[in-house]
Amino acid sequence: MTLSVIILILVGFLSAIIGSLVGIGGGIIIVPTLIYFGVSLNILGGITPQTAIGTSSIILIATGLSSTVGYLKQKQVDVKNGIIFTIGIIPGALIGAYLSQFLTLHSFNLYFGIFLIVVSVLLMVRHRIPPIKAFQQERYMKSFTDAHGEHYRYGVVPSIAIIASFVIGLTAGLFGIGGGALMTPLMLLVFRFPPHVAVGTSMMMIFFSSVTGSIGHIMLGHVLWGYSLILIISSWIGAQLGVRLNKTIKSDTVVLILRLVMLGLGIYLILQSFFN
């Protein structure tokens, strides 16, 4: 019992630090870690791919809220465009939560691993990908200068943003990741957000998508409430630390950390799919 509590505290704390630092929420760390300790090592009882996903969704509510409050104080959240993304992400998260009950451990590891590697590669070549003119309409453009003096111009076309965020919400509910693993890269690659604003706005999206996705998982009985309480407390603290660290790091470093985290986890999950 003591070992389980220690594991849960560390998982919640470390995943929240990394997740809030780069705008992915931490779900891509929490879910495979819970499955590893629960299914592979049998240390955490009651863990299945579905309960890991459902429990992660609950935890990401705390991580998303904690991080969003911190980034709002630092003026790193684009609230207006964030609301536009929310219109698509909420129904997508509900549908994804329902579909998650059909996942097997093998399919989860394989598909999620491939997904993370593809996004990581796209982030690696993001500067070589020319802006898509349809996504860069002048009337939606705005300017932003970060704490290090770097200047950015970016914008969000509402119709495209709603469609894209629906797909992200679907992924969020399906994998229990809050959508950040795709939302942050989307804002960086497609809408050319400043990295720090992308992270802050992504955490706002993670909060809303997690609240919505959690409703579906609670109804399906996919939440382990005892584990959730421990993870929520440790995640809240970790998220606050991640926000503070983000403020001191340059934009390119934030993207590099995001890319490495996603690449490493993607490779790990694909390897795991061959052993389960």
From TrEMBL:
It is found in: Cell membrane; Membrane. GO terms for cellular component: plasma membrane. Keywords: Cell membrane, Membrane, Transmembrane, Transmembrane helix. Coiled coil: none annotated. The chain crosses the membrane at residues 7-39, 51-71, 83-102, 108-125, 198-218, 224-243, 255-275. It is a multi-pass membrane protein. It holds the Pfam family TauE. Its main location: membrane. It comes from the Bacteria. Belongs to the 4-toluene sulfonate uptake permease (TSUP) (TC 2.A.102) family. This is Probable membrane transporter protein. It comes from Staphylococcus intermedius NCTC 11048.
